[in-house]
Amino acid sequence: QVQVAESGGGLVTPGGSLRLSCIASGFGVNIFTIGWFRQAPGKEREGVACINAGRSNSELSIYYANSVKGRFTISRDMPKNTVYLQMDSLKPEDTAVYYCATDGLPCATWPSEVGDVGQYFRSWGQGTQVTVSS
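User: That's the sequence. What structure does it adopt?
Assistant: Structure tokens below.
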């Protein structure tokens, strides 16, 4: 059974950092695309980062939303079967519930998709709250 589970959320002051983890089970993180999404109260779900399947790092495809580009970094640890989202220079507008999801659209297609990319992902974690506040 394909499953993912997030951890690592919390409260951080503006300018701080957090690292979220997405632990996969039932599949290898080199098999399916894994995406990070977030949803703030009253706002639509946003796809913030994506890492594509690939047997080696040279085959990776990575995507970042413009809102997080240069501040967030997605990476994977294949022995640990985990994908990370390192979030630096956090802003209050980054406050949201963050989800990882898998078995969905390849990262290369995200820039051309109109609307919610998350609707194409089949397996979701339970979410982890990130709050950026002074």
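The longest strand covers residues 18-25.
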